[in-house]
Amino acid sequence: MKHPPAQIHLPTVLHTLMVLVLISIPISNAKSMIEPCSSSDSCSSLLGYILPYDSELAEISYRFRINASDLLAANSISPKTLGDQIFHAKAFLRVPISCPCVDGIRRSLSTTYTVQAADTPDSISAGFGGLVSAEQIRDTNGINTQNPLMSGEKLVIPLPCTCFDNVNNGIASVYMSYVVQRGDGLGSIGAEFGVSTMNLVAVNGLGQPEVDPGDILSIPISACSSANLNWYNESLIVPNGSYALTANNCIKCSCGQHDLNLRCGTSGIATTCSQLQCKGSDLFIGDSHVNQTATGCNITTCVYRGHLGGKIFRSLANSSQAPCPGNQSSNAASPFSFDPGVPSIAISPSPSQSISPSTGALAPMSGQNFNISSNGRLLVTALSFSLLPLQLGILFLL
Ligand SMILES: *[C@@H]1O[C@H](CO)[C@@H](O)[C@H](O)[C@H]1NC(C)=O
Ligand SMILES: *[C@@H]1O[C@H](CO)[C@@H](O)[C@H](O)[C@H]1NC(C)=O
Ligand SMILES: *[C@@H]1O[C@H](CO)[C@@H](O)[C@H](O)[C@H]1NC(C)=O
Ligand SMILES: *[C@@H]1O[C@H](CO)[C@@H](O)[C@H](O)[C@H]1NC(C)=O
Ligand SMILES: *[C@@H]1O[C@H](CO)[C@@H](O)[C@H](O)[C@H]1NC(C)=O
Ligand SMILES: *[C@@H]1O[C@H](CO)[C@@H](O)[C@H](O)[C@H]1NC(C)=O
Ligand SMILES: *[C@@H]1O[C@H](CO)[C@@H](O)[C@H](O)[C@H]1NC(C)=O
Ligand SMILES: *[C@@H]1O[C@H](CO)[C@@H](O)[C@H](O)[C@H]1NC(C)=O
């Protein structure tokens, strides 16, 4: 069994659209999933990268030829981290890559590597966490005994990726290529990434629910998208657990904590942003006024509507009799949620109103109106969260 054929992927939602081909994956005994394609489009995808050694942020982004800001965003790490932060060996990072269609299959060829003195194809493969095999490095670059690695030589590093129309079982998803580690099983991998074993088997076209170390799995990560938000000229798909910066970095969007609705607010990192305030109000994008009533809350939110030609679109959206933020008995449906990593804060003046770090939700209100700001202007400095009530999404459809 030197070169077993690739496992064939056949997602039920796509099976009528796809012609599948058998392609040999040149990794001894290792399986990888191949997505045939014919279009010239590309999609957002992720690599699951387990760091082989301690590396600085800049080193990792250089290794994959991606932007450090994008790497932070994919991992929901504050952009304030940009600098010489060290990520330790064995740490898990999501690496965002664009997934084009090259010669009939999905894969990324945009990463290059400059050979160092002591490198071997195996050491280079290890540096990329096994996402590319030594044999793939040799094949892609014509390395053999006549043509050995030369120090200073530039290699193309083919990296595995899949798109599957950014959908999994009808849910917007971004696919992550993950190298199975020693000790991993489908169950443990599924549990870690919130995917059922059955789904992993189906997505990866596994004949039986078994994987071996070195296999590369395609893991669907649920995402929230702007598809139904009626945005101007902009479509965005953000995997749960990531954020995205848009509109010249003026706007930051991420999934809600309890749902897959896209929430956008001011990013607070770009300095030259205008048109962030909703007309006829004192609210900035992502901010809300909340008025408590006898039966619920009236909420007015300044929502992001996309950008075009340097112009940022936004509008006020109202929802009346909505669940109040922090009504803990209706937490799951709460329109308010905070980005992970937001420090615990108290809303003055009442010390009883505090953000619970565990749930990220506002504690119950004591019957008064208040304002919520997406970047903490009215609360505390550096508080950064965004909100978009579930109910408000419906307003866009009207
Ligand atoms: C990385 O992306 C950020 C935000 O999009 C941008 O401001 C910056 O110029 C980019 N850096 C490089 C090196 O491309
Ligand atoms: C962007 O919007 C303009 C005006 O609404 C429209 O004419 C144009 O086709 C849109 N472009 C894209 C790529 O959607
Ligand atoms: C998003 O991810 C978080 C943490 O990774 C998880 O707790 C939550 O259930 C996920 N949300 C959805 C809607 O899948
Ligand atoms: C809080 O939730 C409970 C149960 O969901 C509901 O009966 C109550 O009206 C809610 N209160 C507010 C202020 O939204
Ligand atoms: C909340 O109350 C203020 C005045 O107290 C009013 O201006 C505002 O329109 C109200 N907002 C909602 C959503 O009812
Ligand atoms: C929302 O309510 C405000 C007043 O509270 C009003 O000025 C505005 O027109 C309303 N917007 C929508 C979209 O209903
Ligand atoms: C809440 O909204 C309802 C319906 O829009 C309105 O009748 C009511 O006066 C509002 N209450 C407050 C406190 O703004
Ligand atoms: C909310 O902000 C408005 C405008 O700045 C202000 O008039 C109002 O008093 C604020 N409400 C609360 C509860 O702070």
Describe the structure.
- The chain has 2 domains: 208 residues, no CATH class; 122 residues, no CATH class.
- It has 7 helices and 19 strands.
- It is elongated and about 75 Å long.
- One 2-acetamido-2-deoxy-beta-D-glucopyranose binds next to loops.
Give the structure's gist in a few sentences.
The chain is α+β, with helices and mostly antiparallel strands and 398 residues long. Helices cover 13% and strands 29% of the residues. The strands form 5 sheets. Strands 3, 6, 7, 8, 9, 10, 11 and 12 form an 8-stranded mixed β-sheet that branches.
Q: In terms of topology, how is this protein built?
A:
Elements: E1 7-8, E2 33-34, E3 42-50, E4 55-56, H1 57-63, H2 68-74, E5 86-87, E6 92-102, E7 105-114, H3 121-127, H4 134-141, E8 154-160, E9 167-168, E10 171-179, H5 186-193, H6 197-204, E11 216-225, E12 237-239, E13 243-246, E14 251-255, E15 262-266, E16 288-292, E17 297-308, E18 311-322, E19 370-372, H7 390-397
Parallel strand pairs: 1-2, 3-10
Antiparallel strand pairs: 3-6, 4-5, 6-7, 7-8, 9-10, 10-11, 11-12, 13-14, 14-15, 16-17, 16-19, 17-18
One 2-acetamido-2-deoxy-beta-D-glucopyranose is lined by residues 296, 323-324, 327, 329-330.
